Amino acid sequence: MQIILKEDIPCRLMFGNLYIYPNLIKMKTFICHSGGAQGADFYFQEIGKNYHVKTINYSYKTKHHHSDNKKELTQNEFLEGCKMVEKTNQTLQRFRYQRMINLLARNWFQVKNSDEIFAIGSIKKQDGLQFVKGGTGWAVQMAIDSNKSVYVFDQNEIRWYYWNFDQNEFLVYEAEPRISSYNFAGIGTRKLNLFGIQAIENLYYNSFKNRNMRILYLHGLESKLSPEKRLILEEFGEVITPDLDYFTDENCISLVYEKYKNEDFNVIIGSSMGGFAGFYLSQLMQKPSFLFNPALKERPIVQEIPNGEFQKTKITILLGAKDDVVPNEKTLSFLETYKTDSQISILFNHEMAHGVPISVFKNELSTYLRNL
């Protein structure tokens, strides 16, 4: 058995300072703010449909703009956009842009209504400054001036950059970016190449790949999955929650196994008594599991462990340091002598007791499920 005590990773696990992962909401509410042009705009919209992302395409009296989800700016909005174009040009210092003012003004609303910007184009250096070429550069600079997160895929260099506000320049983004805000801008050059298309596909895939899961949730001895926690899990897919009567049926775990052993689940989640059940079902069904304060060593009632072949899997256990119902030392004592080929990772939250607060449930499971 390989047990990993997560004491050597960031203090979120050891001191209760849980890293707050960007809010994740139901896929259908993600909105891509774009321009409806050919090239990058088109692919952000079309590929986004595969992930149920809605696109809003801004326009102002654009004769050839016939895209879906078109939003025509009002006169006042257009004038607001014009002011932002002039402000942005204080940095860009471009000429002969007035003939494109209707397109440039609409760029402001792509930025204004977004929390982060993803752009496809190319980055150019000139006179000690960095900027994105073409019309995309206007929206990118507007976003920088508005202190918003900006990611640019340079399709000539085939790599992502991000704007570093401390160094005031684009730096290489070593990882694959992910969409973390439900309002984002997906924009870019009309002259999109195959690398640019692939970058958009990868961005969507990496952001939403784990949102069609089947999750088996096992509740505790005297608790059920609350509506609030169910909503958190449903952000990632279908949630199956069998109603288990631990008090009157000592074969509850066996019944769950027999009912669901041939079904396709991505993960098992359990809490307390449900964590005990999930510990063994995870190995019987060879599925990864995330368990909150599992009652592994002892329980107030009898529950039989199902017969079957235990298989190698990955089990993650989150222990609340203030848990006086299922003390940590008993869980750790049990695991020290438990023989298995599975990898068991143990996380700690020094502020959590036996119950799991909504904030901990959301933050820990959002991170775990997204990276599963």
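Next protein, fold it too.
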Amino acid sequence: MQPDMTETAAIPHERATYVRANSHDDGCCYWFPMRVSYGRSMEVARELQAEGVRYFHPCNEKVVTRKQTDAAGNVSEKAEITEVPVVTNLIFVYATRSELRELKGRTGPLSYMRFMTYLEREGAHGEMSYSETLAARRITVIPVADMESFIEVTEREKGHVTLIPYEEIFRHYGKRIRFTEGPLKGKEAVIRRMSKNNKNKKVHFEIDGLLVAELDYVPRRMYELLED
């Protein structure tokens, strides 16, 4: 259940999960999950990089084979590693709300970005006036600590992590764990899959029902189970 919106100002922005769509910008930077029209997240990522804006574009590495022809007309194949978006219409941007609105108000690829919003009173849309609908609309943000932890895991364990759209995984939660040693010491995750020998686990780091990072099998000695 979402907290009472009248208490928004009392919620530290590092732990916020929403901002009011019609409220004044508080000047804080948030991690905004942004939908990208027409599946052009790669173009948006390049523009954000050129603007010096911090972002996270979830991609997996993929080996592709390309044909090339030399001067003599001989055709050969070359394997290359390229990055492929996990979800072509999703990107995360770290900025203030006013900065992000200015960016997406421009012409070009950045105009394809859209805030992810929802109504606090879901299902009551037809019963509310226009002004009530505006007041009830919320812009989704990712808690800063959660997003930073997710990025750290995917970058530190690159090559051992597969990013997966949330809707493609098995939704039943397993046991929560905390790493007790290794580079991920102190990080929390959820066991999603178990190897046949029952000694190693495959764990998932999740971002607000949007994206999952699946880490390669982890030895039992490296984590502790947390209480439900």
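About the second fold: Helices lie at 41-51, 97-104, 130-136, 144-156.
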